[in-house]
Design goal:
The complex is a heterodimer of chains A (108) and B (115).
Chain A (H helix, E strand, L loop, with lengths): L2 E3 L3 E5 L4 E8 L5 E7 L6 E6 L3 E5 L2 E6 L4 E6 L8 E8 L4 E3 L3 E6 L1
Parallel strand pairs in A: 2-11
Antiparallel strand pairs in A: 1-3, 3-8, 4-5, 4-9, 6-7, 7-8, 9-10, 9-11
Chain B lengths: L4 E3 L2 E4 L5 E6 L6 E7 L5 E8 L2 E4 L8 E4 L6 E5 L8 E8 L9 E2 L3 E5 L1
Parallel strand pairs in B: 2-11
Antiparallel strand pairs in B: 1-3, 3-8, 4-5, 4-9, 5-6, 7-8, 9-10, 9-11
Classes of the chains: A mainly beta (108), B mainly beta (115).
């Protein structure tokens, strides 16, 4: 079966760093996706990790450990506009299985 | 390029009625997916088209749901008859490669409320 776990909610301060963790148990795993979804809008692609390690893309970085079934999304220099839901998704053979998403609130 | 568009953005219907949701994927994207988010739960996979063929419909809840993609362009998802538990946000997404390893481009979703 497929199982994706991530925290439901997180709060962080503007300018700070926040790490959103995700653990997964899936069959036929290809890679790990992160999407950002602002309220009432479409989820938008942030990152895709296939290999173990950290990939940096501006203020956002994503990490994957395939052996541990673990990933995290790291957001640096938080801005108010980063308040959104962050979806962890495990890419299988032909589809992505998502978790419930982590609702991040950035406060002044 | 134009993104994935979904219509309508909101729909409120009574139990027992029929509703048809439409999705126009990004032009040239052979892969089209339907997902559903019920309040407080994960975005759950419903089905996957490759062009006009259903590749995987293992996530379809029951036979009250019918999805089509005639001609391999736009897709429709019909719920007939609708039940209260069908309420949620229905997302469509498309990708060039298969979604398992290609980024999905999502539409804004259709918020369905069954009363």
């Amino acid at each position: 079966g497929q199982n994706i776990d991530q925290p439901t909610e997180m709060t962080a301060t503007e300018g700070a760093i926040v790490q959103i963790n995700c653990t997964y148990q899936t069959s036929g795993f290809n890679g790990l996706f992160w999407y950002q979804q602002h309220a009432g809008e479409a989820p938008t692609f942030l990152s895709y990790n296939v290999l173990d390690g950290l990939e940096e893309k501006g203020r956002f970085s994503s990490f994957l450990s395939r052996s541990k079934g673990y990933s995290y999304l790291l957001l640096k220099e938080l801005q108010m506009k980063d308040s959104a839901s962050y979806l962890c998704g495990a890419g299988g053979y032909q589809k992505v299985t998502f978790g419930t998403g982590t609702k991040l609130q950035v406060i002044p | 390029e134009a993104g994935v568009t979904q219509f309508p953005s909101h729909s409120v219907i009574e139990k027992g009625q029929t509703v048809t949701l439409r999705c126009d994927p990004i032009s040239g994207h052979d892969n089209l997916y339907w997902y559903r988010r019920v309040m407080g739960k994960e975005i759950k996979f419903l089905l996957h088209f490759v062009k006009e063929s259903k590749q995987d419909e293992s996530g379809m809840p029951n036979n009250r749901f019918l999805a089509e993609r005639t001609g391999g362009t736009y897709s429709t998802l019909k719920v007939q008859p609708a039940e209260l538990e069908d309420s949620g946000v229905y997302f469509c997404a498309s990708s060039q490669g298969t979604g398992g390893h290609s980024p999905l481009h999502f539409g804004n979703g259709t918020r369905l409320t069954v009363t």
